[in-house]
Amino acid sequence: MELIVDGVGHDFGTLSVLDGITLRVGAGEIVALIGPSGCGKSTLLGILGGLLRPLRGSVSIAGAVPRDSLNPFTYVFQDFALLPWRTVAGNVAPAERRERVEAALSRIGLAEFRDAYPKQLSGGMRQRVGIARAMVVRPAILLMDEPLSALDAQTRELLMEEFLALWLGERVAAVYVTHNLAEALRLADRVVVLSRRPGRIKAVVPVTIPQRERLQPAAQAELAPLHDHLWESIKTEAQVADREVIDA
Amino acid sequence: MVEDANKRPIAFRGGGFTLKPGRWASWIAFAAVLLLWQVAVGSGLISPVFLPSPLSIVLALQHLIATGELWRHLGASLGRIGAGWAIGTAAGLGAGLAIGLFSPARAVGVPVISALFPIPKIALLPLLILWLGIGETPKVATIALGVFFPTAIATYSGIDAVSLSLVRMGQSFGLPFGDIVRKIVLPGALPSILAGFRISTATALLLVVAAEMIGAERGIGAFVTTTGNLMQTDQLMAGVAVLSILGLLIGTLLTVLERWLLRWR
Hints:
The complex is a heterodimer of chains A (248) and B (265).
Chain A: E1 2-12, E2 15-25, E3 30-34, H1 41-48, E4 56-62, E5 73-76, H2 88-92, H3 98-107, H4 123-136, E6 141-145, H5 153-170, E7 173-177, H6 181-187, E8 190-194, E9 201-206, H7 217-247
Parallel strand pairs in A: 3-7, 3-8, 5-6, 6-7
Antiparallel strand pairs in A: 1-2, 1-4, 8-9
Chain B: H1 25-42, H2 54-67, H3 69-101, H4 103-116, H5 125-132, H6 136-160, H7 164-172, H8 177-214, H9 220-229, H10 233-261
């Protein structure tokens, strides 16, 4: 299954937030979406999964949806969006698919917490529940809205490892919205840079080093200039966006 | 450790401003008030006609229990509260749910509720008697009306407080409308609904007594009025004690219910 985004644009009232976004996400491909604050990254992600109707352009799919997929477009949320009144197991199965729950829980190390409530868990464990919930429905594409930004740096490192293990195991495609360049370079096959509001695609940077090797020194040396390049391309945008927020 | 002639400890300044639960203080104070009261009446400082001693109130209560009169009155009151509260709660939950979920219902319901909520419901009893005749129905209807408004308001404001991101999560996993209401909206509104129950049960208790004072042969409210007219203050106070125990019991029951239903908090 391939995701095709064609000329998508969106406004909130008189405020134009997205303009002319054209993008393809191939089967099993991981695309990171970076850009300054308020550039419409989250809006675009909402449009991709059908939670928001775009005012211009269209989102479509080409090719067959994997037959066993219960929810082809599946979100992982920044604030985890767990139901506080449900246990871990109850959260992983919002639509009562119990048979798959146990497997998903043990794969991500939550088996012993299955009867705990979200308030009893750390942020990292909560997001693991969010990921297990997403994997249970066998997505064709994961739509991840800054899934690590509410977590501390160490937990972020741990979860990135787990994301990779999951993705590379299941070859599920992902659109990964982040502020964090290091996260993008660690996880993505392609990094899409959005400009400040209204968000337009400013650059698309492929990262060809296999994800498994990216922590090795040679790969790090190769990624460093890429990091600088990405930062250069969004730094001025971020500065202007920062001032815009203050002016507004 | 560095030894230094100038070394001195930092003064502690972080105390106070935290409340410690007093285990016995409240019981001791309660007992002291009762004792003082007993002594004041017993020594003739206060006339027992105006304020009977705690001991005579207990004796009067004992007598009421032994003769079965307490159950006759309490049973009548509980029947009215039960029926009125159940009807008012069912209607209030229904209206609150509709207002919380559907914009047209909100557009119609909120102004109507805001306009009618401040009316003291006991003032409607004479009208309800005109409409529904003398007997149980107007009393139950008054209680139901009194219960309806706080329940409806607690329900729709509870629904308003449910995080939209949880609803969007449900939609993103393809949950149908009914499942989103049942699994996300209602459990999310439950804390507010239960808080509303506290108000509505207190209202029901207040209204049953008021309605029984206006016109009833049985019921704690009627009993309190009758004994008052006969200057049987010890019996009157026994009735008041029963009411306060009833209120306390309902409150405790709700606390237990909250602890169980909201154990995830």
